[in-house]
Design goal:
Beta-Lactamase; 3 domains; 47% helix; disordered C terminus; Helix Hairpins; alpha+beta; 405 residues; 6-stranded antiparallel sheet; 5-stranded mixed sheet
Length: 405
């Protein structure tokens, strides 16, 4: 990652510990100027400054790195310590101490968490000072490491802030997306379906009537696709599918209507529906109907042509069990755990008539109800999807509400 000098200066300036570190460095060493410098091969930039004798370097100032000793530290990646520059055999003739007017100088490198060189923690003074002591060097290294840790924490906080902003933007886009689907697409489709329904009841020649019926069925399919994508958006991005649970005394009648609709859409197929009376079921009637519709559509699409699809609804005081069975090639065991993933479709070469959201939405409806959805598939008995919903009596519901409160 290419680092920005400006962002590094800002990052250092946001670290609350930095002013204290620079003040402690000056007080402990006796050097009245301390600085955190961002150093590259081309630049020297002051990221934080503590100046007690008026050297004149301020936050954000740039110096010619060739005129400083920080380039030496950058190249060696080791601390540099000078007690008395004018008497030091290596630096008595060096132009830097004379140029900036200092006698004592100490600089230790700052490394980022990934090992990348960042710059130096430096201190200097026009007066000579005894700096070549283990305690002084250890303190400077400790502070350099502390600055590195603080920079790492700041970077992680920035990433977290960016993620929060990104999630907020995604949430806004999600709401816009659902609004577009719910209004700008759904409403026109409803008008097309209604118009097609009216035309099918008019006195049209058989050829035109077939075209109108095809328009009606295609529009219905588009409407189902829109509903599926909206449910996916709510379930995957919005925290789950919302339910409107109530006591339903005619669930079998509602589900029989679903079966009849699919029989009309697939006149060449046989759907056998067996049911108990099923009164007093606690569920979302519309969502259970959607669950059955998706399971039936899946069975009709993937079941062997010419074989019936069987729907069974069984109710007891303890549970509701709804199953859909079709005949045909069994589902491989390793594929079954993948069936309820979004955008999962049939095997390669199989006609694709949807987005692959049907079974995912089935699993989300089951989960929202606190129920389960299971699959069993074999050559002998076919493929069966079974939705099981445990029925909770009123006393237990009251108890759960008390516990939740």
């Amino acid at each position: 990652m290419v680092r920005s000098i400006e962002s590094d200066v800002e990052a250092i300036s946001r670290l609350e510990a930095v002013p204290t570190i620079l003040r402690v460095v000056t007080e402990t060493t006796g050097l009245r100027f301390s600085v955190i410098a961002r150093v590259t091969r081309e630049t020297w930039t002051a990221c934080a400054v503590h100046d007690e004798f008026g050297m004149g370097v301020k936050l954000g100032d740039n110096l010619d790195v060739a005129t400083t000793l920080c380039g030496v530290v950058r190249d060696s990646l080791k601390p540099l310590i000078i007690n008395h520059a004018s008497q030091d055999p290596h630096y008595c003739t060096h132009p830097t101490p004379k140029h900036y007017g200092f006698e004592s100088y100490i600089a230790v490198p700052i490394f980022l968490k990934n090992g990348e060189y960042f710059g130096n923690l430096c201190a200097l003074d026009p007066r000579p000072t005894q700096l070549k002591e283990p305690k002084t060097v250890a303190m400077m290294k400790l502070f350099a490491n502390l600055i590195s840790l603080q920079l790492d924490a700041e970077e992680r906080q920035n990433k977290t802030r960016e993620q929060l902003v990104s999630e907020q933007e995604a949430a806004e886009l999600r709401e816009q997306f659902i609004a577009v689907l719910g209004h700008d697409l759904r409403n026109p489709l409803s008008s097309v379906i209604m118009g097609a329904e009216m035309l099918t009841r008019s006195q049209l020649p058989e050829r035109e009537l077939k075209i109108v019926r095809r328009i009606r069925e295609s529009s219905r399919r588009m409407s189902r696709l829109v509903d599926g994508v909206m449910d996916f958006a709510r379930a995957k991005l919005g925290g789950g599918i919302a339910l409107s649970v109530s006591r339903v005394d005619d669930l079998a009648v509602s589900l029989r209507h679903i079966v009849s609709e699919l029989e009309s859409a697939h006149p060449e197929r046989v759907i056998r529906f067996s049911t108990d009376e099923c009164t007093g079921v606690r569920c979302d009637r519309e969502r259970i109907g959607q669950l059955l519709s998706n399971l039936l559509a899946n069975a009709l699409e993937h079941g062997a042509a010419g074989t019936p699809v069987e729907v069974s609804l069984r109710c007891t005081e303890a549970r509701l069990v709804l199953s859909v069975t079709n005949r045909g090639e069994p589902i491989p065991p390793e594929t079954i755990p993948l069936l309820f993933r979004p955008y999962r479709r049939g095997p390669t070469g199989h006609p694709r008539t949807g987005l692959g959201l049907g079974l995912y939405i089935v699993s989300e409806i089951a989960r929202a109800h606190g129920g389960t959805i299971e699959v069993f598939s074999s050559e002998e008995s076919g493929t069966t999807f079974t939705f099981t919903l445990r029925q909770v009596d009123q006393d237990e519901r009251d108890s759960r509400m008390v516990c939740a409160g």
